[in-house]
Design brief:
By secondary structure, the chain is of the alpha+beta class. The protein folds into three domains: 78 residues, Helix Hairpins; 112 residues, Cupredoxins -  blue copper proteins (Immunoglobulin-like, Sandwich); 93 residues, Cytochrome c-like domain (Cytochrome Bc1 Complex, Chain D, domain 2), CATH 1.10.760.10. It contains six helices and twelve strands.
């Protein structure tokens, strides 16, 4: 395949955000080159112009220039503000996945990547996604700090133990590309590699159906979460119809604003729900008591993710 947008400094750009990230990079690069050449040129000019030719030679007194002093304050300030505004806008775009994104759960561990799809299909070190479809990766680590990086998509984000992080991309070309861990995570860090396979939609659907058939023993996350809800007797404290019992109802819980006893508040996102399950005493919702047992801290990573997916589905 012909490289698309590949240069000496950057690999090909194959996501919707990649051209914007590259444009910012090259703006900073060329401005830096121009400033470097200007400074080096000025130094060379002054060295030649004011070169001392005789031991008794003294240069004439030079008065300061208000215009020059103002220029080297104003111009760098403008350049910094341009880079900040441009970078911040790109950061906001990269941090906010489109609402129609296809969500895949990613788990990093020493030293491999596991990918779980909504239908229960699971792959190891192979990420399969459709082209021209926003993909949201909900990521966590089972051990130490990792970092998920796909160079051609300009996607890089830390993967943390005991909490979720997320990143998204939309591929623009089909093909096979590299995935790296870019946070040192132990002796086999350099071997923590994976591949991302970008397929057209029909090929992806076929692959997804075939992969699910090979994982019949792996229930989709929301279904597993529903089973755990029943097995763990969550219904004794958390209803699904909005009615109030011992604890808050799961209906409409995900994404809602929770106000706590100390007056603080937080949005009930993935990380808040994770904390509430593993450490229920950390933040008590106003009007409720700390009545949840600590036994749920023994849930596996997949069970924990499944419960959160089940709660998310109760809208």
């Amino acid at each position: 395949m012909e490289d698309k947008g590949a240069t000496t400094w950057m690999p090909e750009a194959l996501s919707t955000m990649a051209p914007e990230i590259d444009s910012l990079f090259y703006f900073v690069f060329w401005v830096s080159v121009i400033i470097f050449v200007a400074v080096m040129g000025a130094m060379a000019y002054f060295v030649i112009k004011y070169k001392r030719t005789h031991p008794n030679e003294r240069t004439e007194h030079v008065e300061e220039s208000k215009i020059l002093e103002t220029a080297w304050i104003v111009v760098p300030t403008i350049l910094v503000m341009i880079v900040f505004t441009w970078g911040f806008q790109s950061f906001i775009k990269m941090s906010s996945a489109p609402p129609d994104s296809y969500e895949i759960v990613v788990r990093g561990s020493k030293w491999q990547w596991n990918f779980e799809y909504p239908n229960g299909a699971i792959t190891v070190n192979e990420l399969h996604v459709p082209v021209d479809q926003p993909i949201k990766l909900k990521m966590s680590s089972t051990d130490v700090l990792h970092s998920f990086f796909i160079p051609v998509f300009r996607v890089k984000h830390d993967v943390l133990p005991n909490r979720y992080t997320s990143v998204w991309f939309e591929a623009t070309e089909t093909g096979e590309y590299d995935v790296f861990c870019t946070e040192y995570c132990g002796s086999l860090h350099s071997g923590m590699l994976a591949k991302v396979f970008i397929k057209n939609q029909s090929d992806f659907n076929t692959w997804l159906d075939e992969s699910a058939m090979g994982n019949l023993d792996e229930m989709p996350l929301p279904e597993l979460g529903e089973l755990l809800y029943q097995q763990q007797a969550c219904g004794g404290c958390h209803s699904l119809d909005g009615s109030r019992v011992v604890g808050p109802s799961f209906q409409g819980l995900y994404g809602s604003n929770r106000v706590f006893e100390d007056g603080s508040s937080a949005v009930a996102d993935d990380n808040y729900l994770r904390e509430s399950i593993l450490n229920p005493a950390a933040r008590i919702v106003e009007g409720y008591i700390n009545g949840m047992p600590p036994s749920y801290s023994g849930l596996s990573e997949r069970e924990l993710t499944a419960l959160i997916a089940f709660i998310e589905a109760q809208q």
